[in-house]
Amino acid sequence: MRGNPQLVGREPWHSRMRMASLGAMPTTRGLERLIFFTDAVVAIAITLLILPLVDAASVHSDTEKTAAHFFTEEWPQVLAFLISFAVIARLWVAHHTLFEHVASYNGRVIFLSLAWVFTIVVLPLPTAMSAEFDTEKLTIVFYLGTMLVSSLLLTLLSLTVRGNSQLEASENPIDPRGVRGTAVMTILFGIALVVAVLVPGVNYLALLLLVLAGPIERVLGRRAARVT
Fold it and tell me: Does residue 41 sit in helix, strand or coil?
């Protein structure tokens, strides 16, 4: 008995979705559009960080207060802006560096990239909240947790691409140091979150742990070199 000729060679829709998720979709234009979209969203999100300060400056100008009054009263907002700007910039650099080694993409790369972009879009909200509710545990968890998830997604992206012949550029493979770097940042964000929540009075100062990222990466790099 012959099957329906219209169905010959066709896969069920769920099989096609799985193939799209796991198999590469090798179009240079598609990869460029994914990168351009990501960069554009990051640029918008990092710009939104300054808007609460712009609004606050307008309020101060209406009350005829001086610039010194503005910075004295709004220093928590200014600090939150600087921290979030530095974090987003650091995460974007890691994302940019990773995609220098990407030759193609698949559904998993798209999903992880969109999830990462979501964390960047969300970050201006806890940034603004951290200035208004600076000691509330929920705000601290929201703020540091968003950073943690963002860094974790970058780590997963790196692990997804590295060693995958369909995704990784054969002429420019991912340096193990890059994977170690994102992994170290993720771990430090996690430790900072735990310290900020459990240790009274520390709050956002726990982010100072991130300065250890460079020294830790160098130590791990030397150990890896000795092993190889």
Answer: helix
Nearest residue to 25 (alpha-carbon basis) of 95, 109, 129 = 109
3-state helix, strand, coil in the chain (%, to 5): 75, 0, 20
Closest CA to 75 of 83, 31, 116: 83
DSSP conformation class of 210: G
Cβ–Cβ < 8 Å for 95, 116: yes
Name residue 15's amino acid: S
If we measure between CA atoms, which residue out of 36, 163, 188, 175 comes closest to residue 98?
Answer: 175
What is the C-alpha separation between 173 and 37, in angstroms, rounded?
A: 23
Distance CA 71, CA 57 (A): 9
List, for residues 31-87, the tens digit of each pLDDT value. 899 999 999 999 999 999 999 888 888 777 666 677 888 888 888 888 889 999 999
